[in-house]
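Data availability (excerpt). The following record was deposited with the supplementary files.
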Amino acid sequence: MGSLGAITSFASLAFIVVFGSVSVLAFRQRDAASIHPVPPAVGAVGAFAFAPVMLWNLYHRERHTFWMVLVVAVFVVLVELLYFERGELEDHVPDGVEDGVEEAVERVGDGVDAVGDGVEDVVDGVGDSTDDRDESDDEP
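Predicted structure:
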C-alpha cells in the first residue's frame, strides 16, 4: 500500500498547490487588500513551475511513489467534489450534516460539564480528607 515517501510527497505536492492557489488569490485581490503584487506573483509562478518538476522527478526516480501520489490526489479531489454536491447529500441525510454536528457538539459539551462536576466533587473530597489526617503519617 502507501509508504512514508508517498505520504510526504503527496503532502509536499498539496502544500505547493495550496501555496500557489493562495498566491494567485492574493495577486487577484492585491488592490482591495493593498498587497504589493510582486511577492504573490513570484509565489504563484514558482509554485506552479515546481509542481510539474516534482511530479516528473517522482515519475522517473520513484515510480511507485508517483502512482500512489496520483491515487491519493484523485481520491482527495473526488471526496471534495462529493462534499460540494450538497444537494445530493441532503437528499440522503434528511436532517442535514450541520444538525448532526451541532448535536454531537452539544453531547460532548454535556459530557465535559459532567466530568467537570465530578472532578470538582473529587477535589472537594480530597480537601476534606486532608484535615482528618494523623500527623504521625508524615514521618518516613
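Summary of structural features: Helices lie at 4-28, 38-61, 63-84, 86-92, 97-131.
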